[in-house]
C-alpha cells in the first residue's frame, strides 16, 4: 500500500467518523444547528455543513429551518436490525408477559461489542423506571443480563470479552476484578441464572436467565425492581423461576419454529 493509499484511507475513515459523530449528537439533542454541532464536535462549520448536506441527501437527517434532526429512515433501519434477531415476536411476547405478571420491568438483551445491548423492554404497573432504553448498552459485567449471557458463551469468546472489560466501580457492589467476575460466572453456570445486586444502580436489583439454542447463547431475559421488593428469598425464589420459565418458552419456540 502506497503512502497515498494510506492517506486516502485515513481521510475516508475520518470522514465516516465525523458523519457518525453528527448522528450521535442528533440522537442526544434536539434543535441543533451547524454552529452547535461544530462547537461540540470540534470541527469547522464548513466541514460539519458538508457532512450535514451529505446526510440530508442520503435522507438520514432532516433540516427544519436552521436545525437538523434524524429522519424516519433511522427508524426503518432500527426495525430492520431488530427483525434480524430470530423470533423477535416470541421474545417481545415473553418480555411483555413477564412485565404484566410481575408488575416490574422486564427486558431482553444480547451481547454486542463486549457489552449488553437492550433489544426489548416492557414496564409493569408497579415498576420503578430505569434509564435503560431499547438500543442502548450497559457494561456486561455489572448487569444480570450481561452476566447471564457472558457465563454461557464459549470459553474462548468469554475470555476475550473479559480481557477487554474496564472494571470501573459504579456502585459499592460493582465487580472490580477479573478473579471476582470469573468466580461469579462459574456460580451463574451452576445455578442457571444471574443477579445484579445493586451493581449498576444503587437500590435496583435484577435477575436474568440465558436463552440458549444448543451451545449458542441467543441472549437473556430479566426482571428489574427495587431492592425493597427484590429481597434475597424473592430473587432466588419466584423471580428466578419467572425468568427461567420465560427463557424456556423462547428456547422452545426457537428450536421448533
Automatic annotation (TrEMBL):
InterPro entries in the cross-refs: ArsR-like_HTH, GAF-like_dom_sf, HTH_MetabolicPath_Reg, Tscrpt_reg_IclR_C, Tscrpt_reg_IclR_N, WH-like_DNA-bd_sf, WH_DNA-bd_sf
Domain called IclR-ED: residue spans: 73-256
Organism expressing this protein natively: Halopelagius longus
BP GO terms, sorted: negative regulation of DNA-templated transcription
Molecular function in Gene Ontology: DNA binding; DNA-binding transcription factor activity
SUPFAM superfamilies: GAF domain-like (SSF55781), Winged helix' DNA-binding domain (SSF46785)
Highest taxon in the source lineage: Archaea
Domain HTH iclR-type, chain residue ranges per copy: 13-72
Keyword S-adenosyl-L-methionine: no
Keyword annotations of the record: DNA-binding, Transcription, Transcription regulation
Protein's UniProt keywords contain tRNA-binding: no
Protein name in UniProt: IclR family transcriptional regulator
Leader sequence segment: none
